[in-house]
Amino acid sequence: MYDVQFHSSAFESFDASEGLLGVNLERFEEVLKLAKKGDLVQMTFDTSTSKLVIHIDGVEFTMACIDPDSIRQEPQLPEMDLPISFTIDEAQISRGVKAADMVSDHIRFRCDEATQTVYVEAEGDTDDVSLELTSDEIDSLVPAEGNALFSLDYVKDLSREFPKSGSIALTFGQDWPMMMEYELADGECDVLAMLAPRIQTD
Amino acid sequence: MYDVQFHSSAFESFDASEGLLGVNLERFEEVLKLAKKGDLVQMTFDTSTSKLVIHIDGVEFTMACIDPDSIRQEPQLPEMDLPISFTIDEAQISRGVKAADMVSDHIRFRCDEATQTVYVEAEGDTDDVSLELTSDEIDSLVPAEGNALFSLDYVKDLSREFPKSGSIALTFGQDWPMMMEYELADGECDVLAMLAPRIQTD
Amino acid sequence: MYDVQFHSSAFESFDASEGLLGVNLERFEEVLKLAKKGDLVQMTFDTSTSKLVIHIDGVEFTMACIDPDSIRQEPQLPEMDLPISFTIDEAQISRGVKAADMVSDHIRFRCDEATQTVYVEAEGDTDDVSLELTSDEIDSLVPAEGNALFSLDYVKDLSREFPKSGSIALTFGQDWPMMMEYELADGECDVLAMLAPRIQTD
């Protein structure tokens, strides 16, 4: 699950009443690729046709919207116990994911409170991987004893969106979801990704 | 349909009587890729074996030719009424094609004589695209009222061959074929591509 | 068949008794890709678990080994008569292979002793290719009359591993295997690849 917020500074101008709009993200992404770096993108919602009109350097794209009521509602989040947090460079996570991907479909994040170390681990049938993250690799560690297991495919999908060379704030707890927070576009956009854990049944 | 002409300046030397040669274009293209930029390509037609011998930096490639009589004859062209013409940057056509490709299998070129504007348009089931081309984007416009519809796949194939950042001269008329003319190799090669329209049946 | 030797200068430190280790090359290659250029790779063989423990910048990879007895033994090589040898730039072989690939599944290396020339040749059903290599393209030629035919697929596989812009020493004889020798990593690694010929049955 993603929660993305744009700061007002991300907009050149803004004139809108409150509202909720459903858009086909794939189509929307395609349209935005018509813009070159630095091009302004102008969006107008036509309330009579319920279409979003997008202007990009001479191109007018008229896009049908999706009724927000037809989109799956976001789940209610329970109170969560996430005592472990730290920030880490995107490249370190990518390395851990790449190494884990060689041996398993799952990846474990584990914190050792005593040694103030976070481990990214994966266990295969014959081969194992462990990436040790100490204060050299991570910042602002709030340590606690705990670990959580995640589906590697989902972690791969999420980490692919991390900004290159960016800083990622991770928060997790014993068998709780993991929160991954980072900034895009020079801080004009805040992203929070949340990933549910895989609960290991022994 | 393509009509490609090489100027004499494109040749280092030339010694041939008039003739017609059929070649397998795919094979010919592969062979020419053996040449590095700046390499001379020497071609000799061996009339005894009916083979084309191609020399490229030490490589001798002997290529069987195709009997020209076995190749489909080029069609007789009717007199055409193509009152609209203009030149445009390759990048603008690429953008129009890219945008149209999101919503439809067809693309329309339309000229509004009054506003001296050319539109590249595509209509999908729910989404529409329109690229407006004014004197900012086009040169040498000879305007007239008219529009023509084309298969997007063919336009894509043809536009892929346009020289990057090159200038393309387009000529069209109401439901007539479109002519696309451009230069390659610093003007040593003139290309004319012709594309038949799709006639819309309402 | 490959015979690869690392010089002692390729190692930062080395502490081992003599031994034979079987490793899954594909897996090993994947693991090594975790290293960035300049990273040290530390390998320890754990004799109690028969696993190879690989450390690369914080990542610990524990890899199961393969029983050397279960790997196919290298063949006994007969005495060979390989009177022709020369060195050549990797780019020239690539060109010959690329050209041959257009017309045939086989490639012939042929030496003409009188003209001190080596030919790389391929014959197709309708098209032929010949790359002539004289003293301009090859060094240290020891000429003799002879030629040998090879499966193009194997030559392609082997030549793909040649160092870009590197120098390759080739040795062959009439219908004998070809030896291909080159250096990697600034001479810290010597590679000898051997390819069996295809014997033409007329």
TrEMBL record, chains A, B, C:
InterPro entries: DNA_clamp_sf (IPR046938), Pr_cel_nuc_antig (IPR000730)
SUPFAM superfamilies in UniProt: DNA clamp (SSF55979)
Name of the molecule in the record: DNA polymerase sliding clamp
GO biological process: leading strand elongation; regulation of DNA replication
GO MF: DNA binding; DNA polymerase processivity factor activity
